[in-house]
């Protein structure tokens, strides 16, 4: 029998083969374009895992060492960096800092730390490796040492360690002029305060009132304290609550405190001129031979009168002196024997002059009230106070300009304001219209000395203003 070769398996029809090939191609394309949810999840996870730690570790390994040898190892030391993030991922997500430790100082015994929000002396000591007991030793060493626990955000502490790594000294700059220091000695820690003496120089500013005194003064270069000083100096002649007008002008020569070429503070106003409604008032600071300092006009009369015109700075007059006014609460006509100054609750109220306190307490519809007797002829009343200033009590004495209380709404009051009354020989008068008595002028024996100091200051204001106006016209 002749052996025949085995028969090949029957071939599929050509139409079936073409159909199968087409289906396989479509499936492959679908898998490439639309991966399963499992594949998508793995892709997302991979990108998150490969963000920046590995790249950060590589950078740390390639970079030269700049930290102390006893610094803790990098938190990324155990990360598997077998996969490297793509360049696009590295740019999109910057690598986090490896550690917060600062580079080693040239002097290993010196440490410098900056106070962050929430920091305490204890947390700062921990950062430089000092034990918790060191904080107690420092704060218990001296009453003044407790200032080191009153830290401010951004404050810098300089710490010196001894050869054993213990605290040798601690100091911090509180301002451009003040530094506090603790130094370890055989008896514990010694506290020292260092006050730097600045160079004093004079400066000039000129301003024109456009909206308010405070805004115009700030624009001219006067800080808040100098603005308040100027208002106090001219407060006997100008009522800053009602007299200020747009176009009023002021010129001020004041002291500047300078350290290493930098202005670190201001001192006193040396001379000033305020032009209100076309009328100019000039003031010059002068200290007499007895050491008493006051402000005087250019010809030597005192700027200080027996009374100041308004007991509240920059308040708004809400009701004037009137023989017949309808009371806002009682709803009937009755005399308004004073002036009402509206201001925010808590605004300080000043004594209009030196005197004895006849009352510091409640008085009917006036609420919390202070009444002051000034000599034999004058008396002032301050009503609706929120409260009294410390030390102000019935039977005591007060000085002109002293804070005696604060704006409130006690008694019959519809809103926070001061009700201010002025009496002459027991009769109520309008405090806005009352002519104020003058204080003593420069003594004859000192007049020549005063003029030698005042005339150059007044001349400088004139010259500075002329130069300023001339330059503005160019």
Automatic annotation (TrEMBL):
Its cofactor is Zn(2+). Residues 83-104 have a biased composition (Low complexity). This is Peptidoglycan DD-metalloendopeptidase family protein. One of its GO terms (molecular function) is peptidoglycan binding. One of its GO terms (biological process) is proteolysis. Gene3D superfamilies: 3.10.450.350, Glucose Permease (Domain IIA). Keywords: Hydrolase, Metal-binding, Metalloprotease, Protease, Zinc. It comes from Pseudomonas donghuensis. Its main location: other. One of its GO terms (cellular component) is cell envelope. It is found in: Cell envelope. Residues 52-115 are annotated as: Disordered. It holds the Pfam family Csd3_N2. Residues 111-159 form the LysM domain. InterPro entries: Cell_wall_metabolism_enzyme, Csd3_N2, Dup_hybrid_motif, LysM, LysM_Opacity-associatedA, M23ase_b-sheet_dom.
